[in-house]
Design goal:
- The model is unreliable at 191-197 (pLDDT under 50).
- Helix content is 16%, strand content 40%.
- By secondary structure, the chain is an alpha+beta fold.
Length: 197
């Protein structure tokens, strides 16, 4: 997965996440529609009251101060200083209405990928706090056949019933990362600006 996904308020579940986050943090501006790195969006994480949506900025700041890191490889996140502690204690879920990838040919066609029959796609993520600001990254894995002709990586996907387990149950993490991703369907979005990666 590269650098864009969609968060549509036309989807009732996503609208509820957005409204709940806005009620809890009324002074924080959140983006909707096509989401870019450094946008602030509703992300599901654990608070004392349970798993709740909260406005979080997409991207960990790089150690050298140049830009942000938006993805973490699930295969090596536990070995990397930037992600190790978050994988153990600060997991989150990024609710979306699909993620975007671009073809590698000259046309650079843009596709939105989603789970067939579902209007919400849940991505496994990690969060951390930097200078008092919460930020997140999205975990990725090797692409399955439904996306491999467009890109060699894809987000780690979760079923709706796995959201709480990913965030709260340390014993489930390895199994959730090892599970096979479902086949995705794609919608062509047209010939537009190329992804950031």
């Amino acid at each position: 997965m590269c650098g864009r996904y969609q968060f549509s308020l036309d989807e009732p579940t996503l609208r509820q996440y957005w409204e709940t986050a806005r009620e809890r943090f009324p002074n924080v501006h959140m983006e909707t529609g096509e989401i870019f790195p450094t946008h602030v969006v509703p992300v599901l994480l654990e608070e004392e009251s349970g798993v709740v949506p909260e406005p979080v900025k997409w991207g960990f700041p790089r150690f050298n101060g140049g830009g942000v890191v938006i993805n973490a490889r699930s295969e090596t996140a536990g070995e990397k200083r930037m992600f190790r502690q978050s994988l153990m204690t600060r997991r989150c879920v990024v609710p979306t209405s699909g993620f975007f990838e671009w073809s590698h040919d000259k046309a650079k066609n843009k596709y939105r990928f989603k789970v067939p029959g579902s209007s919400v796609l849940y991505l496994a993520g990690l969060w951390n706090e930097f200078s008092g600001e919460r930020r997140f990254v999205i975990l990725t894995e090797a692409a399955n056949p439904s996306i491999a002709d467009i890109h060699d990586r894809m987000p780690v996907l979760l079923e709706p019933e796995q959201v709480e387990a990913w965030i709260r149950d340390n014993e489930q993490v390895s199994a959730l990362l090892a599970q096979e991703a479902p086949a995705l369907e794609r919608e062509e979005e047209g010939n537009v600006q190329q992804s950031l990666c």
